[in-house]
Amino acid sequence: MSVEESPELPSDDVFSLLAALLEGGEMYGCDLAVARPRAPCRNGGANMTDVRVLDRRDWEARAEAHRRRVDGWIGPHLSRRRAGVAHPVEDFLFSYYGYRPSRLRRWHPGAGVVLEGAREFGTGYVDVDGGATLDTAALVPRRRETLTWVAGLLAATAGRPGQFGCFGMHEWAMVYRLPPERVRHATQPLRMSPEAVAAVVEERPLRCSHFDAFRFFTPQARPLNQAQLTREHQVEREQPGCLHANMDLYKWASKLSPLVPGELVADCFELARDIRAVDMRASPYDLSHHGYPPIPVETPAGRIEYAAAQRDFAERAVPLRRRLLAACEGLLAEAGALY
């Protein structure tokens, strides 16, 4: 796939409480944030009725831990980019979603947090007595449409059972009946002939539920899908077993940044990165020279292996989707615009 097109905190439920505990710092070797009253914002910006305060030692440690974590992904990507080479797995998330590496590297505490001792922390922040915080009073109204759409998609997806019978055929449908020089990842060899790829695609109905995969199907492959997908019906079709729906959690986290914690964005990126590896291993491309042995979904054993990985990713996505949804709902509730 190439660059995608897509539409441009804490609440009081149990999931938000859990997220607050996890993101408060305990898992990063520092104390949990301490809530205490703060003076009003000097320039009348952020809603200061319910905030948590991170002391300087803790938030600086979290920010540094975040940078060290993501540098392991960003550093090799930037080195390859300078050398003019691209990796079909490791570089995909940067090109497909179009978010700059610097955006992933920048840590944010999320909404409703005061960074003690911080001044002029960046765009979207306002100084308050003793620190800085996100100006949610200004940010949330501008993001309301995005927050509402993303919350609706996340809630709808979470409310459906996962489907695990597509067997990764979307990548096959993207090269179906194309000559080798026209396939999407033309620099990577196919592990079988175009005729053999076509035979695999035609063996059983395509069961893709994700529009942003379906839209890259070849014209000959689209009628073979059980449903003719559209952007307008994405919310009605998305389901939690889909690799790409779970990979897209990184997209939604990035769209919500800086209103969600940097750790949550990184967690979603890590899941998406792992999903991309399986996505390409199950494709008709041969990436063994990159260290990715194929998952032969054209065989019964390969389909079993793929479905098992799919279920694992679906389980890993559950808490991330909950945290993102809780963030959206909390912000919308504060703005009086719950979807």
UniProtKB/TrEMBL annotation:
It comes from the Bacteria. This is 3-methyladenine DNA glycosylase. It comes from Acrocarpospora pleiomorpha.
